[in-house]
Queue: 3 jobs
Job 1
Amino acid sequence: MTLLQLALTFFSIGLFTIGGGQVAITLMQQSLVSTGIISQAQFYNMVAISESTPGPIGINMATYIGYELYGVPGALIVTGAQVLPSIIIILIIARFLKNFNDNLYVKGSLAFLRPVTTGLILVPVIQVIMFTLINVPESISVLTTIEGWKGLFNWICLAAYGVFVFLLFKVKLHPIAVILLGAVFGIVFL
C-alpha cells in the first residue's frame, strides 16, 4: 500500500467515523488487518499503545500506523488525512446548524445513530477481550474435556484483568497508574 493509498484509507475512516475514535478501531481493523497490511497482533499492540497515550485514539492510531509504515512524513500525512474529514464536516455543520437545529429528520437520524455507534464501540471491546483473554479453540470438540476448558482462557491475563479492574474501581487507583502497571505487567510476565 502506498502512502497515498494509506492516506485515502484514513481519510475514509475519518469520514465515516461517527461516534469517536472507538468506532474508528473497527473500521481500521477492517481496512488494515483484513487486507494484510498489518497483522492482528500488530493491530492490537497499536490499539494498546494508542489507548495508553494522551489524545484521541483514532488520531493516535493514524499517527502510529503512518509512522510505522512511512516514518515521520507518513505520520504527518496519515494523521492529516484522518482529521481532515472532521474539520470539513464541522465547518459545514457550523455554517448550517441554525437552519437544521430543529429539523425532525436531523433529530431522527441522530437518534438512530446512537445505538449504531454503541454497537460499533462494542465490537473492538469484544475483539480485544477475545484476543487477550480467550484462546479460541480450533474445534468446539476440544471443549468436551477438562483440559480443553483449562486451555480456553489466558489465565495470567485474566487474573491481571481482575486485579486491574479491582484497583481501578474499588481502590480508585488513577487510570494512568493502572495503565503503567499494565505495561509493567506485560513486560515482566508476557
Job 2
Amino acid sequence: MAQSRLEKIGTIFTRVQGLLRGGAMKTEDKPIWYDVYAAFPPKLEPKFDRPAPEIPVRKIFYAEDVVRAKLHKENRPQETISLFDHRRSTQSQQFVHIYQGLKAQGALDEQRIYETALDLLAEQRQQARLEATPEESLPEQDAESKTQLLSDFKEAVVSQQTTSSPPSPAPKGKKEANVGINIDSLFKD
C-alpha cells in the first residue's frame, strides 16, 4: 500500500512518489509538476510542521485607495456593478478620476477637493440620468387604443380558458388527495 494520505505526514511529492512506487498510480497518470519537482527540488522541503518565515508584510496604499475608502465610508455609493462590463466605469472610479483632476490643479485643500469632487460626480450622474430618459414623454394613448388593448386581453383570457380544461372544484372542507397539507389548518389561531 502507498504511504499515508494524511497531509501532516510527508509532502505531496513523497505521497505521489509512494503511489508510483507501489503501483497505485500509473506513470502516465502522474501529475505534470512531478518531473519538474524531481529535477528542481526546493531548498527547504515544504512540510506541514515547518514554521512560517517571519517576514514583515509591507503596507501598500495608493493615494486613490485612501480617497476611495473615504468615499465608501461616508457616502456608500448605491449601484449595481457588472464585472463583465468593462466599458462603463463605476461611481468610485469616476469619483477618483474627478478627485485626481482637481488635485492636479492644486488650488484647493484636501477637504474642499473632496466636496467639489462629490458635487461634480452628482452632476455627472444627474446628466447621465437625463440622457438615459427620453426628453419627450410618451404621448398618452387615446381611449380607443386602450379599449382595444383591453378587449384583446379579454379575448386571450377567454381563448386560454377554452383550450385548457378547467380544474374540477374540490369539495370545500375536504383535503385533496394529492396534497399533503391541509390549508384550512394552517391558518387557525
Job 3
Amino acid sequence: MTRSNDTIRVLIPLKLRKKNGRPKIMPPADCCPSEDQTQDPHILRAIGRAWGWRRRMEAGEFSTIQELAEAVGLAERHVSRQLRLAYLAPEVLKRLTCGREASAVSLYDLCFLAVDTWQEQAERAFRCPE
C-alpha cells in the first residue's frame, strides 16, 4: 500500500463544456492550439452561411434581419448573431478558412469579435503571438 506522501497528483487545467449536445474538453485559455489541429467544421459552415446571408441582404433580397430569419427558418436573434461572422477582419477570416487554424474561442464568442478592431480580433480569436 502506498502512503499519502508517496502519492503524486497531476492537475490538468481543462474544462468540460457541452458543444452540440456532446461533452467536449476545452483547453486552458492561455493555450495555443497545435499546428496539426484542424478547424472546427461548425465554424467554417457558420462563416459560409453568414457570407451567404450578407450577400442576399446586400442584393436587396431581404431588407431586414427579421425577414431573413423568417425565410431561413431560424430565430432572428440567432441570425443576427451569426451574421456578424461576415464582418470579421480579413486576416481572421483568412486564418480560419484558408489556413485552417483552430480558433481559441468558441463559435459563440467568435460572433462577438466583429465589434473589435481588426488587430484585437486576431489577438482574441487565436490568443497566440504572430
